[in-house]
Every structure is written in structure tokens, then in C-alpha cells.
Amino acid sequence: MSAPAITMDVRRVGETTAVVDIRGEVTAACEPVLMSAYEAAGGSATSRLVLNFGGLEYMNSGGIGMLVTLLVRANRQRQQLAAYGLSEHYREIFELTRLDEAITLSDSEESALHGVVR
Amino acid sequence: MTDTKGPDKVATADEIGLSAREAAAPPHAAAQAAPPHAAAQAAPPHAAAQAAPPHAAAQAAPPHAAAQAALPRDAASWARKVDRLEVDHRSGVRGTNVAGRRLTGPVQGLGKMWQKTYRMDAGSQITPEQAIATWREHFPEFWPKGNRFAGALTGINPGDVALLDLSIGGGVELSTGVFVLYADAESFTLMTPQGHMFAGWITFSAEREGDTTTVQALVLMRANDPLYEIAMTLGGHRKEDKFWAATLTALGRRLGLPDPRVETRSTCVDSKRQWRHSRNVWHNSMVRSVLQTVLAPLVGLSRLARGVKSQA
After folding, report:
1. Is A95 at the interface with chain B, CB within 8 A?
2. How far apart are CA A17 and CA A74, in angstroms?
3. pLDDT per 10-residue tile (average), chain B, 312 residues
4. Which residues of B are less than 8 Å from A68 in CB distance?
5. Of the residues B76, B105, B122, which one is the last residue of a structural domain?
6. Mind listing the domains of chain A with CATH numbers?
7. Is residue B10 a contact partner of residue B256, using CB atoms and an 8 Å limit?
8. Does the model's ipTM exceed the 0.85 cut?
9. B114 touching A, CB under 8 A?
10. Is A97 within 8 Å of chain B by CB?
């Protein structure tokens, strides 16, 4: 499997929320990067994990599958998963795959942090 | 689990009878196979610059070109958003239990969540693009006997809906379908509708690992409802494993492998069942297919009677 062309930086926002800034290509190959970011952002103290897709350049179906795996892990920890920064194209993919029923989509970071749905 | 051992020697594209399209499949085959507007969307930004000087491109560009250029390069590979499936008549299959259904992913299913991987070493002579081009073009031909896949004549393309008749024993066939969610030169993904045995998707892909090409089917699924969860536990998983192993073996033979071997791996990703989706059972295609089979003579008689009455 080729090396993933992606970076994920974790920011803590308050005591219980973390934001993961995703830049590059989301494919199955980036699972180790995403899971490392999840570990860095996770922990029992985190109740809300926000994915920032503002830097998303490419995503294939393997990437969507990887997000489902992340969702399972978050649910196991009773953590809420939210996302923002999706272009119209990627928002439609979330809707088509019905991932938007489990990952709250918002227009801005502020909305995502407060759980406001678009 | 069985070990995968690559063949020492495999046939060339000519020897195994690949079509010219399959043999020539370059990494950008998806863009070639896609409709003209899709290809335009998929073209990398530098392609236009190479093809024409900047002023020429600006003059020739249609009004919507700027909007298309803003789309990412995966845009042509994804199906357009649909709320409910629409189907065309396809000969050779019953074609029920698909029209009007919504798509279901692992989030919407009930049973435990499984990730199943079926992998096969395809040797060094076949490129990933050739393997996927062959798979996309001849997908139904690799299915085990007794099961029918009626897709579009042009092969597997994003947004297509294929109708399926699956043998479930006792002379009963389960009628359902799949939706082509994604397709590019190195992979394609099918997603299931309400009523299918499982909620999820199957990704078929090929990649180069060192000198050899590996082809893979990856299933990410939950049984759709309580009945299917019971059925999967009582042999359904085993049957599914055999199905995809047989499919990959048939693909391997088409690719010229003398002794295709498939490695199967199943992992329970989430052992929790999502009981809130119990009502998915309303759409259960197995129950509906049995009823449709049993009631078919009565429906036929009813239609015959109506025809006689209208003629009189």
C-alpha cells in the first residue's frame, strides 16, 4: 500500500473537545494516520471529536470505509463525531452513503463545536 | 484461512484473451470510460494547460467549465446522490425489491459489524488497472452458478443499479440489487439497498505490492435485520465467504492464473447490535422473495382472469 498523502493535526478546544485538521487525501491507506490522530485526540476526557475537512483534496470509497471504522471506535467510547469544512461534493458523498446520519455535519468550526447542524 | 502463494508464471494478456480495452487499461482508465462530462471533471488541472495555451483554453471553455474545474479529481468516480433507487427492466432476473428502496450502509444495519477481506495474488504480468478493467467489464461472469447479476451493458459505472437473483436454497431465489457507489481505474464499490442481506458496501480493488499485483474484495457490513442476523450466524457468513472466494478464483482463472488461491480474513469490528434498526425487517427481501415465489401462480391467475374479463 502506498504512503498516505495526508496530514492530520490535532487541536484541543476546551477540556472535552478535540479538532482534527485533515489535509490531503483520505483513502484506506491513511488509516494509521487517522487512528494516531484519534489516539492523540481521544482519551476518556474527550466527549466530542470534530473533523475539519477544509483541506480535503481527494477521497475514495476506502476513505469512507475508514471513517466508518473511526465512527465505531468513537461510539464505543461514547464520543460524538462531528465534521465541518466539507465542500458540496463531499457533503453529497456523506449524504449518499448516509454517514451524515451518524456524523453531524456543520458549516463552520463554531457550529461543529456546539453541535449545530447545517 | 488459506495461505496465498503467487504463481511462478502467468500468461500474457494475449494468451488469456484480454480485450484490447482491458489489456491497454492505463491508470487513468476511469476517466476514459466515464462519460464526456465526467472525463472533463476528472481531468487534472495541468491537462488543460498542456493541451492548449492559456488564452485558448479560456476562449474554448464552456460557461460551466470553471465550476467543473473546481471539482476534485475523484468527482467522476462517485455516483451522484440519490434518495431512492430507480431501476430499468433487465432480462433474466425477477427485478423485485429494489425500486424505491433507500441505500443502506453499515450505520443503518442491525447486526454485528464485520470487515471481511478476500485477497488473491494475481502475479506480476497483470497490472492493477488491467485486473480491475477485466473485473468491471465481466463482473457477472465471475459469479458462482445459480446467482445472477444483471447490470448495465457497459459494465460497472458509478450510479448504475444492478438487479440480483441469489440462490438461497430450496428452489427459492432472493431478488435484490446493488448500487455502484464508486468506480475508478483501481477499485469499485457496490452499496446495498434496504432489504438486502446486509447493509454495507463491498470494495473491489487491485494494487501493486512489490513485483506482484494483489486483487481484493473487502466487505464492510452489518446484517440488515434480526432475521438476516440469525441467518448469517447459522451459516450465512460461511456461504458468503465461499461466494466471494469462488468469485475471485474465477477472476484469477480469467486473468490466466494456473492455480488461483484466495486468502479470507474476517474481523468483527463492532460486536454491538443496533437493535433500533429492527424494523428493517419490513423490507426483508428474503421474506418478500419467498412470498413472491409462493404467490406467483395466484398473481398469474388473477392477471389471466382480468384479461379474460376485459376481453369479454
Report:
1. yes
2. 13
3. 38 50 47 40 38 42 55 93 92 90 97 97 96 95 92 89 88 90 96 96 95 96 97 94 96 96 97 96 94 85 81 72
4. 105-107, 220
5. B76
6. 6-114 (3.30.750.24)
7. yes
8. yes
9. no
10. yes
